[in-house]
Amino acid sequence: MTDRQTNKQTNKQTNQLTNQQTNQLYDLDFPTLQSLLTGWGEPAYRARQLWGWLYVRLADSFDRMTDLPKSLRERLAAETAIGVPEVVETLESADGETRKDLLRLADGETVEAVLMRYERRRTACISTQVGCPIGCVFCATGQAGFRRNLTSGEIVAQALHFARLLQTHGDRLSNVVLMGMGEPLLNYEATLAAIHRLVDPQGFNLGQRHVTLSTVGVVPGIRRLAGEGLQITLAVSLHAATDVLRDELVPLNRRYGLDALFVACYDYFARTGRRITFEWALIEGVNDTPEQAQALAARLTGFPALVNLIPLNPTGGYAGAPSSRKRITAFTAVLDRQHIPYTLRLRRGTDIQAGCGQLRQRTVFGPAV
Ligand code: SAH
Ligand code: SF4
Hints:
Strand content: 15-25%
Bound molecules: S-adenosyl-L-homocysteine, iron/sulfur cluster
């Protein structure tokens, strides 16, 4: 990270603290909410009631919390906010399966979140940062630069936003993928707090195995995550199996090269027993060669992994193109021969630019701070 970026981040964090002073309730963990309410002289059980309104009934206003005394509802409304993001714009894909919402946060910054409805799954793809400091060359978020980290509540609220929407149709959110804007492991505490809140059995109660965290390969973050005792799925955005090529596509590789990354991945598997997913955006003539397939297979032989192949989604700032059918077939033939499990992800939501890496393209930044 350059000095300029570091300064920018520090400024943003100061601003975030100012926002938090209004007590956005989705930013609070249960003990903090409880001490807020007992500090107001409320009986201990009130916090559990309010928690239920926030995470089970998904109330978007204090008026709905009818079993709380009116005086408490009034105080909550005066001194706190639930933290429901404002929807600025909604785009639906032509097939109706994908919906992308541009959400405005308390300080005017915006993030994008996507709801995917395929068969029985209802998956929210949510952001962890406004922008991203990593700058992978093919990614729209990376091309636009970094603004600030999201708070835990801002991360949680994106998933709950879609859950609320589904609830009105008698439906439920089944999966959450941290694969929107930003690098979750560079916003570690807030991301972890958000995951804990989403999987809380007394709250939103999402199954841990229905949560996927996608990282570009922040090695210290992977190591730390391995020790959290969670059963979430880790996805690592690999895109290249040689350092020479990965250095070019994913700048962070110059800091954490493939050897260090794979040691951290083996360690993650050893400690959690969870098979790791490796993401690979297929770029015509760049990383779809038989040599790259071979190098990938060599890295993964004997390691319980799943490769997720995604033909590149075009972005304005990168000239690369998605691989042709023929080149994909040649690539997967190598994986087949080496018995490496993979999935080829269909391109979804591309007509609304909600495909991977396309978040941010149509987004207008919030006010400069
Ligand atoms: N920062 C994290 C999570 C957000 S990016 C990460 O990089 O993993 C989510 C996924 O979209 C990553 O796998 C990323 O490599 C992929 N992606 C980014 N730009 C893309 C593009 N133009 N086409 C296809 N996938 C892309
Ligand atoms: Fe950041 Fe992930 Fe995009 Fe890379 S792919 S720039 S890490 S959001």
